[in-house]
Design a protein that fits this description.
This protein is an alpha/beta fold. Helices cover 39% and strands 13% of the residues.
């Protein structure tokens, strides 16, 4: 049996176009162009986490910002949360974490999320978490922050400046020399 190249090519083109059309019509179809995640920034008052929690306990009300997604924070807000002993999670791979990371941060590489997921079982869902990676050009912290929020964590921050901004500010780090 001889295969006609023109017929073969026609079948491939028609089936590809049909697949693209069905994907386009389907409300759950895969987008042709990935929409960039628009970061919503946390209010500056969220950096007074401990104060808000004390007020909440006294008033038995929620006086802090309500989270409907992970919120981005600045270097100043990140350091304020760090000073209040909020948990920092490094989204970079373990080798980068070992070379250097924010002091007391926990490694949870986004690309190996399922392998490190057991770490999350030891963390209460109600405590605030700050996810970070290398910096503004790295989106692992955004992806991890979203995944943590989807996993049930109530207060997730994305430190947008990340490891690079933290180092440049000479804030506490742990590195390979320690």
């Amino acid at each position: 049996m001889k295969i006609n190249f023109t017929s073969f090519l026609s079948i491939i083109i028609i089936s590809s176009l049909l697949g693209l059309l069905i994907n386009y019509i389907n409300p759950k179809g895969i987008p042709f162009i990935k929409e960039e995640r628009q970061l919503n920034w946390a209010e500056d008052s969220t950096t007074s986490y401990i104060t808000n929690k004390i007020i909440e306990e006294d008033n038995d009300q929620n006086s802090g910002e309500v989270f409907d997604e992970a919120k981005a924070i600045t270097l100043k807000q990140a350091y304020s949360l760090y000073s209040q002993n909020v948990l920092f999670i490094d989204a970079r791979d373990y080798v980068e974490y070992e070379i250097g990371h924010i002091k007391n941060a926990v490694s949870l590489p986004y690309l190996d999320f399922d392998e490190y997921k057991n770490i999350l079982d030891t963390i209460p869902k109600t405590i605030p978490i700050v996810a970070y990676c290398d910096g503004k050009d790295c989106d692992l912290s955004i992806l991890l922050g979203d995944k943590l929020f989807e996993s049930g964590f109530k207060e997730v921050y994305i430190f947008f400046g990340g490891w690079i901004d933290w180092q440049m500010a000479n804030y506490p780090v742990e590195d390979i020399d320690d």
